[in-house]
UniProtKB/TrEMBL annotation:
<dbReference type="InterPro" id="IPR015883">
    <property type="entry name" value="Glyco_hydro_20_cat"/>
</dbReference>
<protein>
    <recommendedName>
        <fullName>beta-N-acetylhexosaminidase</fullName>
        <ecNumber>3.2.1.52</ecNumber>
    </recommendedName>
</protein>
<dbReference type="Pfam" id="PF00728">
    <property type="entry name" value="Glyco_hydro_20"/>
</dbReference>
<feature type="signal peptide">
    <location>
        <begin position="1"/>
        <end position="18"/>
    </location>
</feature>
<dbReference type="InterPro" id="IPR025705">
    <property type="entry name" value="Beta_hexosaminidase_sua/sub"/>
</dbReference>
<feature type="domain" description="Glycoside hydrolase family 20 catalytic">
    <location>
        <begin position="77"/>
        <end position="323"/>
    </location>
</feature>
<feature type="active site" description="Proton donor">
    <location>
        <position position="181"/>
    </location>
</feature>
<keyword id="KW-0732">Signal</keyword>
<dbReference type="GO" id="GO:0030203">
    <property type="term" value="P:glycosaminoglycan metabolic process"/>
</dbReference>
<dbReference type="GO" id="GO:0016020">
    <property type="term" value="C:membrane"/>
</dbReference>
<dbReference type="GO" id="GO:0005975">
    <property type="term" value="P:carbohydrate metabolic process"/>
</dbReference>
<keyword id="KW-0378">Hydrolase</keyword>
<comment type="similarity">
    <text>Belongs to the glycosyl hydrolase 20 family.</text>
</comment>
<dbReference type="GO" id="GO:0004563">
    <property type="term" value="F:beta-N-acetylhexosaminidase activity"/>
</dbReference>
<dbReference type="InterPro" id="IPR017853">
    <property type="entry name" value="GH"/>
</dbReference>
Length: 366
């Protein structure tokens, strides 16, 4: 009887560890519009929670009725009461709810200047480059998205008000600052940044945000593309950096969590971040095969890694680049028809199925 009990206890521990292969099983998606909160809460309650999502990054930006900076409210923003509905359903399912506000880059999109530079144009890193009436890429100005100048003496007084308030209302343990695809940095015409090292400027901004968060025991998450050298890796200018920011990987705080997004191939760059002592999450988008490969890659990294590196491979986070409402509708529609594997919804399902598969293997990777 004792022998059977010991076998049972050993098996329970073994399987329990197997179920925790990945610390992060996440989804990154735009926060719902004010009229879509009920639909989104239901989606979390009936779909995301039950299938095992434990991390939810919501891209809020200016879609909240900020009280500290009401001038930066978007049109028809989420109210505090609506955010608390999201917080409640996340707590119900033990989901780590993380708000995102894009800092540094992504201060414009196509023909639209986003709220920060609209209200505070003096923060613009490249005020000499004007937003066109009709946006096209590529263009002579190299304009993808505007950046704020991280060396402007007043910019952090404003953006940290947003950060602090959104973390508070979300009751969050972490904050996602975006910081991807920053093409305008250390501009030669900026009176503060000209002639300075882009890697140092990028790293200093990451660390400034990280250390601000650490005062209240919060953790910074960012996208990882600016920390990968595009030339030596052959990855290119979108998923890696061609504007000399990659050396910042050796300069940023080790507490920063890297969301390593790659959408065309399961590139092995999570190993780069782990080797640098950084926690890393692999992030797919709409190719189901890529998501499956990323899950298997992260799993193999964990089972083959040293104890020192193993802890850095946190898991997976699917990214959605449509509205929350559009994603939910498409996600439900795919239940009733043949699934196109090259869609956000199919990729998300494939990622979760692959995670379930590796967890069912019963490998003790902890």
């Amino acid at each position: 009887m004792k022998k059977l009990l010991l076998i049972f206890l050993s098996l329970s521990i073994y399987l329990g560890n197997a179920q925790d292969v990945f610390e992060v099983k996440g989804l990154c998606i735009a926060a719902p519009n004010a009229d879509g909160v009920t639909e989104f809460v239901k989606f979390v309650d009936e779909e995301l929670g039950p299938i095992g999502i434990n991390t939810l990054v919501l891209r809020v930006d200016f879609n909240y009725a900020y009280e500290l900076r009401p001038e930066l409210r978007g049109n028809n923003p989420l109210s505090k009461e609506q955010i608390k509905e999201l917080v409640a359903v996340a707590k119900k399912h033990h989901i780590n709810l993380i708000p995102q506000v894009n800092l540094l880059g992504h201060q414009s999109w196509a023909e639209k200047t986003n709220k920060l530079l609209e209200v505070y144009p003096e923060f613009d890193e490249t005020p000499h480059i004007k937003i066109p009436e009709k946006y096209e890429w590529p263009n002579a100005d190299g304009l993808y998205c505007k950046s704020y100048c991280p060396l402007h003496p007043e910019v952090h007084n404003v953006v940290f008000d947003l950060v602090d308030e959104i973390i508070s209302v979300f009751e969050a343990k972490a904050f996602h600052a975006g910081m991807d695809e920053v093409f305008y940095i250390a501009d030669e015409k900026c009176p503060r940044c000209q002639g300075k090292d882009p890697a140092a400027i990028f790293a200093n901004e990451v660390n400034k945000i990280s250390r601000h968060l650490e005062i209240n025991n919060k953790r910074l998450w960012i996208w990882g593309d600016r920390l990968i050298d595009a030339s030596t890796s052959g990855i290119g200018m979108w998923e890696a950096s061609m504007n000399n920011t990659a050396r910042a990987i050796d300069l940023i705080d080790k507490s920063v969590v890297i969301c390593d997004w790659h959408y065309e191939k399961a590139l092995p760059t999570p190993a780069l971040f782990a080797l640098k002592g950084l926690d890393v999450i692999a992030c797919p988008w709409k190719k189901s095969d890529v998501a499956k490969e990323q899950v298997n890659m992260m799993y193999k990294f964990k089972i083959n890694a040293t104890p020192e590196m193993k802890e850095h491979f946190l898991g997976m986070m699917h990214t959605v680049w449509s509205s929350a409402s559009e994603f939910i509708k498409s996600y439900h529609a795919q239940k009733d028809k043949e699934i196109n594997p090259v869609t956000q919804e199919a990729c998300f399902r494939a990622m979760m199925a692959a995670i379930k598969d590796v967890e069912s293997m019963g490998k003790n990777v902890n």
